[in-house]
Amino acid sequence: MSPSEGMKPVVLLLGEVVLAQAEWNALGAIAELRPLEKQLNHGTRDHFLADCKTGLYDGVYAISRTYDSTQITGRFDQTLIAALPSSLRFISHNGAGYDSIDAHACAARGIAVSNTPGAVDACSADTAMFLILGALRRIHVPLTALRAGKWRGKMGLTHEPEGKTLGILGMGGIGTAVARRAIGFGLNIQYHNRSCIPEQQNLVNAKYVSFEDLLRTSDIISVHLPLNSSTHGLISHAEFAKMKHGVVLVNTARGPIVNEDALVAALESGQVWGAGLDVHEREPEIHPGLIGNEYCVLLPHVGTSTVETQRKMEVLVVENVRGAVERGMLVTPVYESRMMIRAGAGAGMLTNGTS
Description:
Elements (H helix, E strand, L loop, with lengths): L9 E5 L6 H6 L5 E2 L11 H9 L6 E7 L3 H4 L4 H6 L6 E5 L8 H6 L3 E3 L6 H16 L3 H8 L17 E5 L3 H11 L4 E5 L14 E2 L2 H7 L2 E4 L13 H6 L4 E5 L8 H10 L2 E6 L10 H4 L4 E3 L8 H21 L1 E2 L4 H8 L7 E2 L4
Parallel strand pairs: 1-2, 1-3, 3-4, 4-5, 6-7, 6-9, 7-8, 9-10, 10-11, 11-12, 13-14
């Protein structure tokens, strides 16, 4: 169902726009933006489902949602998607990872989804390098010792990056940005991906290797994969056993890709020298074995928490909403939505040719 002729399409905001408020407000010229009291900035999943079922959101054509709004609505799973209004055609998600949305279920209902690739690459790569260096230098030890008035504490000799092999697991935008930064630290780069990246995109001449070879030959492994059924628990006990003794593991992708029980065991045995994590398997809960291990550098999922990146993400979300309203197309549709459109399931919903 498209907006009735002469009527502005309705756009529902789930969460808050903080840094692109002017761009968001400008959408008011072409769409009905739900007034503040009707936007979802509080409540529970049960409340949201009940409101959907009673018709409060009937007529909504597009949803703009923040990552943090998941804390209110819960995951956009099959149950929630089935309750969304029949008028809904687009969801513009603020985040590069979109595992909080069942994109397959959306496609089955003819709902196209977008994310914010590219906008997060630089900031996420900076965070990964911070964690790589911090884990190599076991930086948590002297940092906490100094603040406790113990100078260096029990810090021993650590490691530096130069000459070591960095294995990048997932050579998309973020993985590529990590590779470009890592070259400056004298690291040798290898990667594993679903397929080799085109030569013109391989600006650092990174070597393509199998998953097994990456585990076996990397001194440092940095994870940059999406979370899905094939990557959930991808790195567990068997994978750690195949790694070099004294490997460093960094994860800035999604926590459940790494089995944290296995990681803790590998840290305690010395198989893993150090770990740098911005994401956690059961966040915001942190594994006590990681909290208690001074060779871990832990961050609370803040890899994209800069003014510059958050603004780029919010602007791209708005651009996707504008594209949906004005042209019936998203600027950055996710893979499942592109496949839906190519298959003809999303009749009338075009894209800008993103592949």
